[in-house]
Amino acid sequence: MNTRDIDMLRGSLWDKIIIFALPLALTGVMQQLLNAADVMTLGKFVGKHAMAAVGNNISLVGLIVSLLMGLSLGANVVIAQNIGAKRIDRAESAVSTSFILAGVAGIFFCVVGEALVSPIFYFLDVPKSVVEMAESYLRIFLLGLPAMSFYNFEAAIFRSKGDTRTPLIALTVASGVNIVLNLIFVLQFDFGVTGVAFATVIANVVSALILFRELLRSDGIIKLHFNALYVDKDELKEIVRIGLPAGIQGMVFSLSNLLIQAAINSLGADAMAASAAAFTIEINVFCVVNGFGQAATTFVGQNYGAGKLRRCKRATWVSMGLSALFMQTLCFVILFFAEDVLGLFNEDPEVIRLGVIRLWYIVAPELINVAMEGFSGAMRGYGISLTPAVITLICVCGTRVFWVFTAFRYVPTYETLMAIYPISWLLTTIFLVAAYFYHVKHLKPVRV
Questions:
Q1: Residue 303 and residue 382: Cα distance in Å, rounded?
Q2: Does position 1 have pLDDT exceeding 50, yes or no?
Q3: Per-residue pLDDT averaged across 427-432, rounded?
Q4: Taking residues 30-54, what's their average pLDDT?
Q5: Burial of 86 (C-beta count, 10 Å sphere; 0-12/13-18/19+)
Q6: Which of 45, 97, 223, 246 falls 20 to 30 Å from 420 in CA-CA distance?
Q7: Nearest CA to 81 among 332, 323, 380, 372?
Q8: Cα–Cα distance measured from residue 176 to residue 43, given in angstroms and rounded to the nearest whole number
Q9: Distance (Å, rounded) from C-alpha 142 to C-alpha 39?
């Protein structure tokens, strides 16, 4: 076993889950740092309208990235279950299939995204003061989708055998490249929004190439034989069966956030800039929650493949307990220093005031997300991916659409918009808990 691999089938769980989840959480933070660096650079050195332009795209970018990450999570589960069941041939087939799927998905969403930029911006009713910059940023960003897709699938391959540190190292290097290029393109060449967009694309290419090299050099199950790639139809079907609903579940959040973004746009550039800054902070809390949720997915996946159902259940509860502990600590720090942290992005008093409001509405109740991600992650580890996706679609998207067209229409304030986040989380969690216990009680044997 590689020194970075984790034996998920034997021994204590809490320490292994921490070792797995924290690098994964930090990887998520590094991914967000790519966006945060863009927003911070523009807010400090260009202005709040440029900052608002990039912030307007956060939900759009999240929509596409969520689908790619969901598909890659399908690869994670399939490979992990095969490793747990010691089906080496199938695991190797899944690795090859995942790599090809990454390229096809990245190119497809790049082309579709470029075609839909103008219609989407029309739907969002982006203010004229920022629409040109926002469109330029998004079109350049979309060019890097193939690289981003490869990175996510490559990272999923490493995580399936317990290695979360290699993807973190790759993304850390890429984040450093992004920050340096941001400063060079903005301060030295005065490229503004287009400069930070190109910096992000280059950073995505760097992270994908690093993991590609490591897969070629790897030993054992996940070694990538680039000259002998092929698609296994059975593994592809299983990856899509698990990954597509997981991607849709993530997309639902982004779709509902697009609707909320359109409502935020109606409140002006200050609200847009405040949301952009607050989002880049609050998403780091979610990265911790998501890291432990993916730990539940992978630990449950391997142990389910090995037929260890009791250990699957223990892994689920340990993951959620540790997630709550780390998340609450981070929330306290963020809320205590909220104004100071927001000031790093933009010093406008109104932007900071609105940013603080958003952080209290979203960061304070993050404990709800612990249960939501934990139970969703565990169900995906069992191969149950459609149920959490449907629940999320109905409870999150439905509730937020209803709220925007009712409560916000009658009380069109920033606070009214922010209140829907904890409300929709709570409703979703209630149904996810019920679904989890139902499915665990009626589990089917793992496929052979």
A1: 9
A2: no
A3: 94
A4: 70
A5: exposed
A6: 246
A7: 380
A8: 19
A9: 17
Taking phi first (over 0 means left), then psi (-120 to 50 degrees means alpha), and beta for anything else, what does residue 268 get?
left
Tokens, residue 230: 């092929």
327-363: pLDDT as tens digits: 889 899 999 998 988 888 778 888 899 999 999 999 9
- The pair of structure tokens assigned to 169 is 């190292």
Which amino acid type is present at position 10? R
Measure the CA–CA gap between 276 and 252, rounded to whole angstroms. 19
In whole angstroms, what is the distance from residue 241 CA to residue 314 CA? 25
Residue 45, SS3 per DSSP? helix
Q: Which residues of 256-294 are buried (b: 16+ CB within 10 A; e: fewer)?
A: bbbbbbbbbbebbbbbbbbbbbbbbbbbbbbbbbbbbbb
The two three-digit tokens of residue 168, written as one number: 């973190």
Give me the chain's average pLDDT, please: 86
* Backbone dihedral angles phi then psi of residue 353, each to the nearest 5 degrees: -60, -50
Residues 6+ positions from 319 with CB-CB distance below 8 Å: 17, 21, 292, 293, 295, 296, 299, 374, 377, 378
Dist. CA 302–CA 68, nearest whole Å: 22
Query: Can you tell me the distance from the alpha carbon of 143 to that of 145, in angstroms, rounded to the nearest whole number?
Result: 6
Residue at 335: amino acid letter: L
CB-based burial label for 202 (10 Å; 0-12, 13-18, 19+): middle
Q: At what angle do helices 233-265 and 414-441 cross, to 10 degrees?
A: 160
The answer to whether 94 touches 235, Cβ cutoff 8 Å, is: yes
Other beta carbons within 10 Å of 188: 9
The C-alpha atoms of residue 97 and residue 83 are separated, in whole angstroms, by 16
* Tens-digit pLDDT profile for residues 314-328: 999 999 999 999 988
- The pTM (predicted TM-score) of the whole model is 0.76
Burial class of residue 394 (count of CB atoms within 10 Å of its CB; 0-12, 13-18, 19+): middle
How far is Cα 250 from Cα 259, in angstroms, rounded to an integer?
15
Give ∠ CA 239-397-360 in degrees, rounded to 5.
110
- The two tokens of residue 340 are 């100071």
Give which of 8, 276, 333 is closest to 163, Cα–Cα: 8
For residue 252, what pLDDT is reported?
72
